[in-house]
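User: My collaborator sent over this chain with a note saying "see what the structure looks like." That's all I know about it. Can you take a look?
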Amino acid sequence: ALRGFLMCLVIWGHTLYYNQEIGKWFTSCYMGTFFFLSGYVYKEKANITFLQKVKHRTVRLLFPWIVYLCLLILIGAITNPVKSLEDLLLRIAGGLYSRYTITGENVLLNSYNSTTWYLTASFLSTILFFVYQEISKDIKKIEMALIFLAFSVLMMFCPILLPWSLDSVPMFALFMILGYQFRRLESKLVYTYRIGMMLICIVIYGVLVAVNPGINLSIRSYGIYPSAVIRILFCYMICITGSIIYINIFQFLCTRWKCICLVWIGKHTLAFLCTQLVAIGMLENLVGRFSLGSICSEILIIIGTIILCTIFCIILELIIKVYPKLSILI
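Assistant: Without extra context I'll predict from the sequence alone. Here is the result:
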């Protein structure tokens, strides 16, 4: 259910043009929470080697990346016709580079396939997480986590965004490690301590989001706080405390309600993630023809995007019944 809710936050985040002051309280941590949650729900499987894990992730993440990338480039070519061979090659190169931009000026990924960066970033982050899991000694694991932290701080000063999010992957892997360790810690805490931890996280999250908004992990933007080092540390704390808050909220909700719709969206996160911008683009053009208020327009776009992505997933499921191997696309 939480994964489905986070997917709805991603859609909301991509439509936040007028209500950023409200949205920042909910969307500042969601991308970090995706990685934190991946570590939180990770379960070790017996008799699975490191290479087998890598092979599974390659099929699970890189094959869908290629399929959706080709599909979205095709859709982009239809809605925004290719002007020249150079334009076509730039779009393909941008897709393979898997970053929205290199320097912040020249856009590599068009508006439809810009979310595909997550698949390559998730793949490399998971590989680092698996490397961490292979280390047997706890002291070595701590050293590795600290290296990830130090590397992510140093990469803040890199003048370009590296391909496949190489400059951000250690941060994402560290979120996965922290999520994995948090689950082990959480199981040892009594109910009273968990409530106290939740309240502390709410206070920290609220204060830090107020002083350091504007987080966008996809382009290595860690907020607006003047000091670069403090800014990234604040970003870490926002994502960690936000993740803990969301996990605890949904643990409470799911023990009382089934949250069927969010669970269904969560099971189709990949399809929603990769197709949402097509739906948002269509609906923005449609809603823009009417004189609606900003809040009303935003709500209509969000609801419409969820509906269109749902229709796409239902069609995809029908195709999967004929070609079961395509199930990795959802």
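A starting point for your reply to your collaborator: The two ends are 15 Å apart (CA to CA).
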